[in-house]
Amino acid sequence: MAINSLSTELLKEILENIIDSHYLFSCILVNRIWCRTGVPILWRSPNPLEKSLLPLVISYLRCLPEKQIKCLKDENIPLPNEKTPIFDYPFFLKTLDLKLINNMKYLLPTFLEQAEKISFIYLNESAQILAINQNAPNLIMLRKLHISSWKDESSFMEKITTFTNHLQLISAECVNYKTKALALASLIQKQTSLQHLKLLYTSSDNYCSIIFKSLPSQSNSLKKLELHRVNLDTIDSWVSCYNLKTLEIRNCIGTLDFSSNPWRPIFPNLQNLIVINYAHNRQFFVPFIVKIIEAAAKNLLYFKCSMLDYMSEITTSIAVNCPNILHLDLQSSSSSQIILILNSCHKLKTLKFYSNDTNEFAFTEMIKYIRPSLKKFLVIGSRNQRSPYC
Q1: In the beta sheet, which residues pair with residue 327?
Q2: Would you place residue 316 in the very low, low, confident or very high pLDDT band (cuts 50, 70, 90)?
Q3: Angle at 208 between CA 97 and CA 275, to 5 degrees
């Protein structure tokens, strides 16, 4: 098929799936149709390297309206002399990365005026918090917010809370201030359909408690929860999210005491579970993981667990409760445990595990239990040496 015969809809679908911006840039040089189709995709989420940041800012400056240019010149701010570009690049902007316009306070209002709709705001450590006009109509479509900063960004989150209640993703790192935790909790409670929450580096039990107490407000909509280096002692609040589909826990801390309500089901609709924990208190997580597996049961499709030890009880629970599991990635599993998995989980498509006791005899025994549905069977003798049995 000649490239000129592609419909605009098909061409857009193809270009949407090009991840590398360098390849996408090459595509817009093919002809005018490819250029008109590819430029909005290329410019909706610019993420330049430090050396290419200046050309990007210059391109945006060239798109400023005459009134804005006059204001900047009155402030003695140098502007590029190039002609106005063919495309209005701020119009295509959907991801507002504040590091791109750090210390350029005149640009953000212009972006919000010219951009068609902002769906994602990214705030990192080096970005300067700038005033946001809550009445900007294109912020109505804001769906994702990522805050990656050790600073107290509570005022920024409070401003966001006043004009958006349709966030689908909130990602927050380094919640190390009480005011920041309170602002984040308020932001979560305000949302009507939050689907994905990601918390990183929040080890204080008090701050985690504040945030987790806001999660029952999202118990019907929350589908994915990621917790990295978070204190899990306050567990009663976030286990109320019964519709959770994906749970990821990485190197979290806490004793996870279930004595107050030992029979309460946890995440019965869970399909994907990832637990990576090399902390000293990992033995406390085993009853918690087993409880999740027992509740999810037939719904659990993907499970990855790396804990170095304490795997026997977890593996047995998978074999007993999860007949529909499709993908397993286990660490420190014995040959007998793997045989138990193969004999019980008949729908497995991928099985990867680490084992130090897998010899030729043990491997031959495992082979007897492999079913046609298993497409990938990977045995690794140690973290540094791969077994020949693949």
Answers
A1: 302, 350
A2: very high
A3: 85
**Burial bucket for residue 140 (CB in 10 Å: 0-12, 13-18, 19+):** exposed
Q: Is the CA virtual torsion 294, 189, 141, 158 positive or negative?
A: negative
Which uninterrupted H or E stretch holds 250? strand 246-250
Structure tokens given for 207: 């701050």
Q: How far apart are CA 238 and CA 219, in angstroms?
A: 8
Determine the distance from the C-alpha atom of residue 152 to the mean position of all C-alpha atoms in its chain, rounded to a whole number.
Answer: 22
pLDDT in tens, 332-365: 778 888 888 999 999 999 998 877 666 677 777 7
Tokens describing residue 323 = 């007949």
Largest separation between any pair of C-alpha atoms in the chain: 82
Task: Answer yes or no: are the C-beta atoms of 362 and 340 closer than 8 Å.
Answer: no
Helix (H, G, I), strand (E, B) or coil at 302: strand
Chain centroid to CA 290:
25
Helix 360-367 / helix 335-344 crossing angle, nearest 10 deg? 10
Q: What is the pLDDT of residues 53-111, one digit of tens each?
A: 677 777 777 777 777 777 777 777 666 676 778 888 888 888 877 666 654 555 666 66
